[in-house]
Design brief:
Mean pLDDT: 87
CATH superfamily: P-loop containing nucleotide triphosphate hydrolases
Radius of gyration: 16 Å
Low-confidence stretches: 1-11
Shape: globular
């Protein structure tokens, strides 16, 4: 839910909207979500939704991650009764949402962030390549919801959260799809 005590009154966000905050792991989704939550926004992590509804059954050992069916996630979201707010996770854009905000990060910086988390090199490379190839952005564009992207490479967590709020307030052009292109990086990570 949008904060009621704040002086921030979004021009684009309206009651009953679900916004997907998505991006490759390491782009800042959870950090931005914590900030939005502290400002009174209703926030739901896709991973928490999956855990709550018992959807973490099939584990991909090679990737050290769970395989999730978007249809099962959508059913869980409906059962959850989330009428509005921010849905956070690298699969959030695959669900029935009203707007998608994709957090982006230069693949080299993303690789540093993931390596600092102790991720295996193969998983770091896979995610850096996915970011260079715009995988999540391309998937987001397949839906009907408007899509925006934020380059978090050099942003502070607060800056990324403020950019997200700017989109919700109607600042569309600055965050329009197509302003970020790291395709030249793909060969470095493949």
């Amino acid at each position: 839910m949008a904060p009621s005590t704040s002086s921030f009154v979004p021009a684009v966000y309206s009651s009953g909207m679900i916004i997907a905050l998505t991006g490759t792991p390491g782009t800042g989704k959870s950090t931005v979500a914590r900030y939005l939550s502290s400002q009174g926004w209703k926030v739901l992590e896709v991973n928490e939704l999956a855990k709550r509804y018992g959807l973490l059954k099939s584990k991909d050992v090679a990737r050290d991650s769970f395989e999730l069916d978007p249809d099962d996630l959508q059913q869980a979201l409906v059962q959850e009764g989330m009428g509005e707010g921010v849905l956070v996770g690298h699969l959030a854009h695959l669900l029935d949402v009203n707007m998608v905000i994709v957090l982006r990060c230069h693949p080299s910086k993303l690789a540093e962030r993931l390596a600092d988390r102790g991720w295996p090199l193969a998983k770091v490379r896979e995610n850096a390549l996915a970011e260079a190839l715009d995988i999540i952005l391309a998937e987001s564009m397949d839906g009907d919801a408007p899509v925006f992207e934020i380059d978090t490479t050099e942003m502070t967590p607060e800056g990324a959260a403020e950019a997200t709020l700017s989109i919700l307030a109607g600042e569309n052009e600055k965050y329009a799809v197509g302003n970020i292109d790291w395709s030249e990086e793909a060969l470095l990570w493949s």
